[in-house]
């Protein structure tokens, strides 16, 4: 695996353990209103103003994975402590956890309960091996429909200068940025309500791409915020495409909880590459 392809291998690892089925929901809006003409700094300020706000976030997930030749389904639970840690518990049958992914600002832990083994990698060491912009804040932003800026924990209004602005249609603004360290492009399509409709990460030289689409926005947090309850993720490589459907339900915001970053002491520790090799073959 090359240094430049690390983010895609990591994301494929994350996506491969995301597997599920669909459910009905009440959709509040699908944006079909043309976007307004705004100055670049005004648009970026409105995006930040209308971002989903939370201190803690939890949701049940129904997930589906397709590689073109194989389809898998499962349930899961997602929990996020904003700017601190997140955890995804994969529970294919009867609420029994088989995989657990834990990520914080410093480390990534993947627990494989089927085979009694785990991965524990430092984010700093992952960046040294795969210097391509992957970190906790990027993953948190993708999961919570928020914009991100490479190398920054939290975007600020002045970060509008990091993007080029255009309209991909009369319904969507298009913002494009670049991580100058890794040469990876990232972009966002923004609807008329200043919400993210698509997030994209790509490395064109190697034909790798990740698209994260958001639909079926519903009201939560006492009806004051919109959040997408359907996400569709496509991770594309020259040799393989992964398609992942994520359906969120029973979303709870700002309910206190703790996340403990740990793995069972009697499990065998393996490298991220060993875990990836196993998961891809599942």
Task: Describe the structure in your own words.
- Helices cover 16% and strands 41% of the residues.
- The protein contains five helices and 14 strands.
- The longest helix is centred in the N-terminal third of the chain and has 11 residues, at 6-16.
- The two termini are 19 Å apart.
State the order of secondary-structure elements, H for helix, E for strand: HHEEEEEEHHEEEEEEEEH
Residue runs with pLDDT of under 50 for 5 or more positions = 1-8, 17-24
Please count the beta strands (DSSP E, at least 2 residues each): 14
Please outline the major beta sheet.
Answer: 14 strands, mixed
Helix proportion range: 10-25%
Mean pLDDT: 84
Strand content: 35-45%
Gross morphology is globular
Distance between the termini: 19 Å
Strand order of the largest sheet: 7-8-9-10-11-12-13-1-2-3-4-5-6-14
| Total DSSP helices | 5
- Report the structural category: alpha+beta
Instruction: State Rg.
Output: 18 Å
Which key phrases capture this entry?
globular; 282 residues; 14-stranded mixed beta sheet
Summarize the structure.
Helices cover 16% and strands 41% of the residues.
Set down the secondary structure blueprint:
Layout (H helix, E strand, L loop, with lengths): L5 H11 L23 H10 L6 E11 L4 E11 L3 E7 L7 E6 L2 E6 L4 E6 H7 L6 H8 L20 E6 L2 E8 L4 E7 L5 E8 L4 E13 L4 E12 L4 E13 L14 E2 L2 H9 L2
Parallel strand pairs: 6-14
Antiparallel strand pairs: 1-2, 1-13, 2-3, 3-4, 4-5, 5-6, 7-8, 8-9, 9-10, 10-11, 11-12, 12-13
């Amino acid at each position: 695996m090359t240094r430049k392809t690390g983010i895609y291998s990591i994301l494929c690892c994350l996506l491969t353990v995301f597997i599920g089925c669909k459910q009905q929901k009440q959709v509040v809006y699908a944006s079909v209103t043309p976007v307004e003409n705004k100055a670049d700094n005004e648009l970026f300020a409105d995006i930040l103003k209308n971002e989903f706000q939370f201190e803690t976030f939890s949701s049940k997930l129904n997930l589906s994975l397709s590689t073109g030749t194989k389809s898998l389904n499962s349930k899961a639970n997602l929990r996020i402590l904003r700017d601190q840690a997140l955890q995804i518990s994969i529970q294919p049958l009867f609420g029994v956890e088989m995989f657990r992914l834990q990520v914080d600002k410093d480390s990534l832990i993947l627990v494989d309960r089927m085979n009694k083994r785990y991965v524990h990698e430092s984010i700093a060491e992952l960046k040294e091996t795969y210097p391509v912009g992957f970190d906790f804040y990027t993953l948190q932003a993708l999961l919570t429909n928020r914009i991100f800026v490479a190398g920054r924990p939290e975007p600020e209004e002045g970060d509008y200068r990091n993007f080029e602005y255009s309209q991909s249609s009369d319904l969507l603004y298009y913002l494009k940025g670049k991580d100058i360290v890794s040469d990876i492009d990232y972009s966002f399509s923004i609807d008329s309500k200043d919400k993210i409709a698509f997030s994209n990460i790509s490395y064109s030289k190697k034909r790798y791409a990740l698209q994260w689409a958001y639909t079926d926005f519903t009201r939560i947090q006492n009806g004051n915020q919109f959040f997408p309850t359907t996400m569709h993720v496509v991770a594309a490589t020259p040799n393989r495409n992964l398609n992942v459907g994520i359906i969120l339900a029973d979303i709870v915001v700002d309910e206190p909880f703790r996340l403990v970053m740990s793995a069972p002491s009697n499990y065998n520790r393996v490298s991220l590459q060993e875990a990836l090799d196993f998961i891809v073959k599942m």
